[in-house]
Amino acid sequence: MLCHPVLDLRLLGLRLRTHVAALEACAVRLCELRGLRGARARPPPYTGVWLGERKICAIGVRCGRHITSHGLALNCSTDLTWFEHIVPCGLVGTGVTSLSEALERLVTVDEVMPSFLVAFKETFKCTLVSEDSPS
């Protein structure tokens, strides 16, 4: 699952590192809502969200003129064998996991989206407008 919020950090009164921490908190909250209590952010250089020594969510933010792009990538039912051919995020000795692997069942993006929206609204203290609601 990818989330690339486009936000004006000035309007939100956020610094870039605070925004990254908020994305991490959002992913941790999502994991909690899905029943994974051990998910946590680690101090730099270990950005993202981790279950033990394995990363479940990568964070990568671009910011230009205080406007963010890119965001987070949470592994739901990702084929983890691809990560055997690279050093994920350049961190030697760490691994990668997914919600499906951690929960020992298939977890789809569609299943996760409602929990993600709850976690995003809680973390960023906002209201999300549904695509099918009147403008």
Which helices and strands occur, and which strands form pairs?
Layout: E1 2-3, H1 9-12, H2 16-33, E2 39-41, E3 49-51, E4 54-64, E5 67-74, E6 95-96, H3 99-103, H4 109-124
Helix pairs in contact: 2-4
Q: Main attributes?
A:
single chain, 135 residues, alpha+beta, BirA Bifunctional Protein, domain 2, six-stranded mixed β-sheet, 4 helices, globular
Give a quick rundown of the structure.
This protein has 135 residues and is an alpha+beta fold. The protein has helices at 9-12, 16-33, 99-103, 109-124; strands spanning 2-3, 39-41, 49-51, 54-64, 67-74, 95-96. A hairpin with a 2-residue loop joins strand 4 (54-64) and strand 5 (67-74).
Structural features, described:
- Residues 1-128 form the BPL/LPL catalytic domain.
- This is lipoyl(octanoyl) transferase.
- Keywords: Acyltransferase, Transferase.
- Pathway: Protein modification; protein lipoylation via endogenous pathway; protein N(6)-(lipoyl)lysine from octanoyl-[acyl-carrier-protein]: step 1/2.
- The protein has 135 residues and is α+β, with helices and mostly antiparallel strands.
- It has a single domain, classed as BirA Bifunctional Protein, domain 2.
- It is built from 4 helices and 6 strands; from the N terminus they run βααβββββαα.
- It has helices at residues 9-12, 16-33, 99-103, 109-124, and strands spanning 2-3, 39-41, 49-51, 54-64, 67-74, 95-96.
- Strands 1, 2, 3, 4, 5 and 6 form a 6-stranded mixed sheet that branches.
- Helix 2 crosses helix 4 (109-124).
